[in-house]
Amino acid sequence: MDVTTGAVWGRVEQQDFRSRVRGTLLGSALGDALGAPVDGLLFDEIREAYGAEGVVDLAFAYGRRGAVTHLTQLTLFSVDGLIRAQVRRDTGAWHPPTDLHRAYLRWAATQRDWGPDERRKDDGWLAREEWLYARRDPARCLLLGFGDETMGTLDVPKNPGEVGPEAVARSAPFGLLVGWEPQLVVQLAVECAAQTHGHPMGYLSAGAYAVIVHALARGESLDGAVQRALALLAARPGHQSVGAALQHALGAVRQGMPTPARVAELAGDGTAEGVLAAAVYCALVGEDVRHGLCLAVNHDGPSGVTACLTGGLLGALHGETALPPGWLAELEGRPTLLELADDFAMEMTQGPALHGPAGSAPGWLARYPRA
Q: What global pTM score does this model have?
């Protein structure tokens, strides 16, 4: 895989990029946390529990306000895997899907173990974060996909009938590879999604989401980003249902005021392309981040993952400063999210300077081992 890594970064460009990286990861986690308490409920049940408007603020789940689920956990390990892949570029053994698979296996270990295993010296710092060892209802397809050392590929995918949205939800970080060409972003996201979601609907939706985030992170409009995704999808076998869902989302924007019924209709039965379409719609019609996320939660469809995808889109589009500060203050794992986001931004903009013995960030290879 040949990659255009991008060029010289000016200070303003670096600051804007860091804001969008932070915005994407924090926005995704906020959506996850907002939807977690009501995931699986119908809208009438949400209103019965939270009032006529439904969920309008962070609520209790897993014993606290602002708790995140396995969707955010896996997104963090996506970022960790991408940093590790970049660190390994000059070793002659560079294959990003393998680095991502190793990262996801580190996540799988958090779902089996009580806490970090200090004997595993090549795990890096993220796998030693104790709060990530909380088991937050991971989907069965994830536990099966990462249940052994065998990596699913496009030729031999794991769970070949799986059409759920979980692989899409961990794919936003691929879009933050702003120095990569869009078609390579799609390819990486698709290959990594096939490690757990072997149906074209599952892995092509992940590719579409990643390249939409990629366009947003490079300063494009959301409508333009979706059009780019549609063009790139068109060359891939099995793209029709994902493309139709995205077209449906764009068309729904012109159908008047947003309603819970319209979001639910787009999300359909919760398959990957429907959830992606619902998230695109909520991000397009939301008056601001708060409104867009509330739209993504309050409907009959899957609240958590729809809001997770919506938050990633809005964070990439507007950057960190557009996110509701009160929600951020209560978000579980916020320090880890910020630290990882800043490490990612540093690796992508200053990578070569960090890897050598005289690097400007001592201990970088201890944090992100090449092993």
A: 0.95
Name every residue whose Cβ is closer than 8 Å to that of residue 312 and which is 6 or more positions away in sequence: 24, 25, 27, 28, 31, 172, 209, 213
Conformation bin of residue 3: beta by default, left when phi > 0, alpha when psi is -120 to 50: beta
For 317-347, write each residue's pLDDT tens digit.
999 999 999 999 999 999 999 999 999 999 9
CA-to-CA distance for 136 and 51, rounded, in angstroms? 26
CB 207 within 8 A of CB 272: no
Q: Are residues 289 and 322 in contact, defined by beta-carbon separation less than 8 angstroms?
A: yes
- DSSP conformational letter for 196: T
8 Å CB contact between 239 and 204:
yes
- What average pLDDT does the chain have? 93
**Residues 332, 173, 291, CA angle at the centre, nearest 5°?**
60
Q: How many whole angstroms separate alpha carbon 263 and alpha carbon 80?
A: 32
Taking alpha carbons only, the member of 242, 182, 183 closest to residue 214 is 182
pLDDT in tens, 137-196: 999 999 999 999 999 999 999 999 999 999 999 999 999 999 999 999 999 999 999 999
Q: Are strands 64-65 and 60-61 parallel, antiparallel or unpaired?
A: antiparallel
Reduce the secondary structure of 152-169 to three states and give it as a string: CCCCCCCCCCCCCCHHHH
For residue 346, give the DSSP letter. Answer: H
* 249: three-class secondary structure by DSSP: helix
Secondary structure of 76-109 in HEC code, one letter for each residue? HHHHHHHHHHHHCHHHCCCCHHHHHHHHHHHHHH
How many Å apart are CA 45 and CA 114, to the nearest integer? 34
Q: Find how far residue 231's CA is from the centre of its chain.
A: 21
Q: What is the DSSP letter of 65?
A: E
Give Cβ neighbours of residue 178 (< 8 Å, ≥ 6 apart). 6, 17, 214, 217, 218, 348
Nearest-CA neighbor of 212 among 80, 77, 315?
A: 315
Residue that the structure tokens 């990861």 belong to: 25
Closest CA to 172 of 13, 305, 14: 305
* Rounded CA separation 124/134 (Å): 18
